[in-house]
Amino acid sequence: MKKLTMVTGLLTAAALTAALAGCSAGSGDAGDAKTIRVAYQTTATFNQMQTLMETAKSQYEAAHPGMTVELVPIQAEGADYYTKLALMNKSASTAPDVQYEDTFKIQSDAAAGYLLPLDDYLAKWSDWSQFADGAKQAGLGPDGKTYGVSLGTDTRGLWYNKEIFAKAGISVPWQPKTWADVLSAAEKVKAADPDVIPMNVYSGKTAGEAASMQGLEMLLYGTEDTLYDISSKKWVVGSQGFKDSLKFVSDVYQGGLGPSLQQALDPNIFTSVTADWLPKGKLAIALDGSWQSAAWVDGGTAPWPAWSDTLGIAAMPTQNGQAPGTTSMSGGWTLAIGKNTKNADAAWDFLSTAVNKDNATSYDINNSQIAVRADVAQSSEYLDANPSFETFSSFVDTTHFRPATEDYDKISNQIQVAMEAVMTGQSSVDDAAAAYDQAVIGIVGQDNTQQG
């Protein structure tokens, strides 16, 4: 689930399809067995995929004379990237051979027939034994087959500015024990310096999946309730935890503890947080991901040499400090092979090149990812590369993963609708929660829900 700015306005489907088709001009016909088309995401503050893809292209072409890798970077954020990738996949003439695939999209994209199962290749690939079980499960489709190979995973927590905290009289290192402790710190910051944004929690439809995962789910999974009951395979409705999570969002935005609504609903909020608010001391607490420092390190898109001295990292506490005390959410991205590829063997050779040990090490370091290969996670090169890796890796012990179902994407959209309703004051918590419950029932059916 990345992370950063959404492009303003969506291209029409016709214009977008034409634009994507134009990407291949001069590089051979679409589906050419001698050309591997690779589609992936880039953004204003996320260029690590470009580096990885260029490296893998060079390595693959050197090892496979006569083959060409056509790189198709898609400059887009969040939902815009998913939309553009889906439009590419709707036509065999534009469909990629290899694509950068968010783990939460694998189920729906596999069901839609966009992806090729990889099990036969994985069974013969010795590197597969290096991947963590959780990373393997993240690539499973609705039929139990594997459709994606993980590049890395992530966790989420609370980034906080130690200098702002000192002015507000908050001692560091800071580790809140409850939600009330988090809100209390935000209140102290507000009282000490009204020009500083006390806290950012992504919320609303503009923030897309970041609102659902870094926002509400980071809260909900710290309550006594859950979003989806894995044992019964039913979606949970009517839960107090969902209401309490919405109340937290309301407290932040309606209580003047967050960005203004104009700032929060700006498509550029991700870039604002990463490249402006945190580096320039405009934001005290950010509920955000382990990847943030990728922009600040030497060679990043927004270099900030003092980031590791200025910022602290705290685990997100459970609602009332109940066991296990802290919570996190994990996701991550994979590389997948398109169902329409005319040369699956070549596509696999490129994919396995891109995720080999050396490339995975470089990517995980450059993108501040939690390593999913054991040989990378245990290497001194990785462990010594970034002072935040050890802390964010420790959050894996109490992390959660989004429901791996075909319906998740639609449910996530309804989470964002509910969040926006309460953050803007257009709806009460109870009404927003009730509307969400009805929407979920409409999506999955009454029989596939249960009361919280």
UniProtKB/TrEMBL annotation:
Gene3D superfamilies referenced in this protein's UniProt entry, alphabetically: Periplasmic binding protein-like II
Keyword Signal listed: yes
UniProt KW rRNA-binding keyword: no
Secretion signal, residue range per the UniProt entry: 1-21
SUPFAM superfamilies named among the record's database cross-references: Periplasmic binding protein-like II
Keywords, comma-separated and alphabetical: Signal
PROSITE patterns named in the record: PROKAR_LIPOPROTEIN
Cross-referenced InterPro entries: Bact_solute-bd_prot1, SBP
A Pfam short name: SBP_bac_1
Top-rank lineage group of the source organism: Bacteria
PANTHER family the UniProt entry points to: ARABINOSE-BINDING PROTEIN-RELATED, BLR3389 PROTEIN
Protein name: Carbohydrate ABC transporter substrate-binding protein, CUT1 family
Organism in which the protein naturally occurs: Microbacterium testaceum (strain StLB037)
